[in-house]
């Protein structure tokens, strides 16, 4: 991933997942082990993103300078 995509992508995937009735409907047909695996993957992705945000906030709280570059993706 480039830029700050690693910060936003997991959270955006959750929003897209929750807002898409076709995806949520198809997930109902998953077996319990498949649902558990999906949950663990999503939990890991969200956790990774939140750790990066926590590190960033911690750095800002101690007064360190942080430079953030955000890149737009071309369609």
Q: Notable features of this structure?
A:
single chain, elongated
Would you write up a description of this structure?
It is a single chain. With 75 residues, the chain is mainly α. The model has no long low-confidence stretch (mean pLDDT 74). Helices cover 69% and strands 0% of the residues. It is elongated, with a radius of gyration of 16 Å. It has one domain (5-61). It starts with a helix and ends in a 14-residue tail after the last helix.
Set out the fold topology.
Elements: H1 5-19, H2 21-27, H3 32-61
Structure summary:
The chain is mostly helical and 75 residues long. The chain is built from three helices and no strands. Helices cover 69% and strands 0% of the residues.
Helix content: 55-70%
Q: How would you spell out the order of helices and strands?
A: HHH
Report the principal-axis shape: elongated
Largest sheet: none
Count of discrete domains: 1
- What percentage of the residues does DSSP assign to strands (E)? under 5%
Please tell me how large the radius of gyration is. 16 Å
On the 0 to 100 scale, the average pLDDT is 74
End-to-end span in angstroms? 16 Å
Unreliable residue stretches: none
Number of helices: 3
The count of β-strands is 0
Overall structural class, as computed from helix and strand content, comes to mainly alpha
């Amino acid at each position: 991933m480039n830029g700050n995509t690693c910060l936003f992508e997991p959270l955006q995937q959750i929003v897209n997942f929750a807002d898409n009735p076709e995806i949520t409907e198809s997930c109902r047909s998953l077996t319990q082990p498949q649902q558990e695996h999906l949950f663990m993957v999503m939990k890991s992705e969200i956790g990774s993103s939140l750790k990066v945000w926590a590190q960033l906030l911690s750095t800002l709280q101690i007064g360190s300078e942080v430079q953030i570059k955000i890149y737009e993706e071309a369609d």
